## 1
Amino acid sequence: MSVKHYRKGVKKRREERLRLLKAKQRRFHVLPLREERDIPPQFPLPSSRTNSASSAPMFKLICAMLLFTAVLMIMNTDHPQLADAKTLIRDVMTLDFNVEGVWAWYEAFTGQAPGFLPRLIARDDSSLPPASDYVVPVSGARIVAGFNQDQQGIVLETGTTLDVEVVKEGWVTYVGEKEGLGKVVIIDHGQGEESWYGRLQDIHVHLYDWVNQGEVIGTTSVQDGRDAGVLYFALRKNSEFINPLDVIPFE
């Protein structure tokens, strides 16, 4: 074999390999690395999240319309089975909103006046509350034990068992028994003021009730072997007990 024929054979085999290589590249075409980086990744959109966010106001609107329709139907029907529901709806719609009560409750549990309510109650930062704010818890009672640091309140005696009235409106924050005081009711009047009623025979209020001034919360207890009624009464201002005689005229 001559050198000329040998070179022709090598050239022919090289051309055949190039042809096969180009054919493979056409079958498995791969983008250059630079082009792949230019193509942004394709992610599925969170359609469920967008749909739920957009449907939330519509769902609330539908619920409000259904509630309004149900109330309207109840109020316009004369069916006897819906009489209680009509009474409940009427009471709720005509119930007065107790702004001062909400103010006192918020202040009692947070220690500060609410910023979202108008300032309807004048604050008093003195050590003693104004005497005109309070009324006597029981009428016709005489003081049998005065105020001191050990007792931190006074003991009143009545000729018979009498109703115990709230000295000032507020929230009932405690109903239960305390050692040495028997059955006790504590009422928070806001602005750091509390009134304590101990040695009660019966209790007519429950925890977190709102009570108005002069409302009956219980009765005085009966002493052993005597018909006279007894009541323990105390006042607190800014977490310190004060002498009730300095605030309330017991006459």
## 2
Amino acid sequence: MMVVMSNLKYGIRRGAEYVKSSEYAAMSKHERIMIGLQVAKC
């Protein structure tokens, strides 16, 4: 039972790290698009 709980905590922590990294990737992509639009306006 303890092994299951530790595996569950590990899975939740890995999932949180994945969500954070994917959100960061989407945010950086969005920022690149905004910078590209600002450059195009000039």
## 3
Amino acid sequence: MRKETGYSYAKCRKALAKFGEQNYSEALRWIKEAAAHQLTTALFKHAENILNSKSDYKTNFNGELNSLEISANEIKLPNGHSFEELIVSSIGKLGEKISLNCAKIFYTSPEFNIFGHSHPNEKFGNVEMGRFISIVSMKRREENSGFPLEKLGRQICHHIIGMVPETLGEPYEIKELNEVKEISENEEKMDDESGDSSENTTKIDENESQLIRQAFMLNPRQTVCEYLDYHGADVKDFLRLELGQSNE
């Protein structure tokens, strides 16, 4: 049973003790159901922590958690198997212990589109896998540049992985933005006068943690906010995760 399911010796022993070796199929069914319940409980405990991270979320979403849990229990893969069965099957095929470390719920309004990217980018069918992943929700304004929104979304995802923003942030006021640009231009001028070999390199404030205030990675002379404005797009929210990252 341990080889077939990948579960610990203690859990397998408990299942066999409960049903007896003659009722192996019942013991197997019980241990799978117990594991599924444990997995679902852990997933929604984490989801509840995310939803309750702000007091208004707690008020708005507490009443919906039960319906979310029921829905998750009924989630099936295209082949009809459950998520828990997929993990058990993968353990048997790979011979490695697999567990769900954390789950993130990313939701957005209907008018927003969701884009994602991973790095390094390994694709298995339609699924991207990598050490780093980013997700962003964006929408197109009526007046826009005509630049493909999907391509723009992937560019912002690239930026999020590379520049590690912590919050969405607020755009600069015009006066504040001009002051930032003036400081940058003065620094570049000083480099020119001193003969600095990096005279053609645009400086990037690596300490800026607000996404839309950061220098856009593919064109550092613009902030992310300016780049989005030029293409007539808005970002509502984003998510960045790294393999081994703490759940906190």
## 4
Amino acid sequence: MKAAAQKTDVQMISKYREALENYSKNPNLKGSQVWKQKDLTEISFYACKLQCVPTKLITTWRSTLEILQLHTNAIRELPDIDAESMPSLKALTLSNNRLQRLPCEFLMKCRGLEMLNLENNQIQEASHHLIHSHRNISELNLSQNQLTSFVGQEECEDYAGTLSRIDLANNNITSISFSNCSTTKEEDTELNSHIPQIILPHSAFSSLKVINCKGNRIDSLTPFLPLLLHGQLEVLLFSCNRVREIPTEFTTDSMKHLRWLDLSYNRLTSNSIPAGSFGKMPQLDHLFLNGNDLSEEVTSSLSSLKIEYLSLKDEDNVAPSAVIEGKLFLGSLQSAQSFFLLKQLAITHVLSVLRTSKPFYPEDFQYMTIDAEDTASYDISKCFEMSHKFIDSGLKGGGAVLVHCAQGISRSASVVISYIMKKRKIAFEDALRYVVEKRPIVCPNSGFRSQLKRYENRLNDCSIS
């Protein structure tokens, strides 16, 4: 009965999608049949152009609503629902909105939350307090925000945590902690300097099994040791960070639960991995170290590990293709992730033609990001001129430029083709043929091809005039 009711809820919401899309003209949804529905348990307002949420939308089904999906709108804040709570709400999705801070006041009324998704907003601050104040949360997603830290701001009593997965990927985090307190008092360190310190994870994280921290600026694995040694952590996704060495604890058999470890695209070198690392982990069956600066000797030694899936080197196709030798490169997202590869090619500028892409190494390279979709209807030609200026700025300064999208096939390829057309004063087909010779997988989608042909006509008109 419950499943059938939820299905009806979704169908009902879809029926009134048109009214919701005209929300700006009718901010209170006046006259909408949605208010006549009783005892709804699930509501989904996906891509309805909501800039704020009507209080009535929350309060009408306060006691029955279990799932509220408000993703892909333009929401900046949530309404004040007074002192009353939403006891039944278990899942709240607010991804792809414009929140600049955690909606703490609203969340405090939702004590039963088990899943909270705030991915791809503009949130700048979050701490352990969010978890301490919502002790039923099992899944928390804060990926693709603007966080610079995730630590405990104050002492909190122990309790049995239920959090099993936390996603913090693609932020700007440099400081992170999962232990009992964020700092150690200096006097305590002096008094107990002769006693080996055992830092335990806070009990709030005692059930944590999956951490996704890829795409941040964390330079050490030490903050994760309490969870790895004394917790239940099974999966650590940590690619595209700044780690320069593997702690000696990774040579022991103390990490009894870890089965998936991704350290690809960090700053590891052959000298920074202690002998015997990873070999005594009883559950480890997936290990990723590709995209680091490892010698043949080290990779040969690691390849003897009895691990089901082991990635030590990038595939050959990760390296970008030289369109103009030593100057202009066309590649994939993996090309842009590899710090050592970028340095090896003397790249100075990176042009990302990719949705929701953030600079991986902004302190080392100059970036420009174009939020482009790989669809025939997307107008990529509007990006040509600004892209050309960025490429020129890199080349004129004596640098080298990487242009990339997800695969280096359509979006970034179209930008590079347009650049070659303009600089060499050649037709689209000739420029396409030239770029395909350099990177055979290049294949702009049909819409981009049409736009490039029109761009050829514009260039011809300019040359005639």
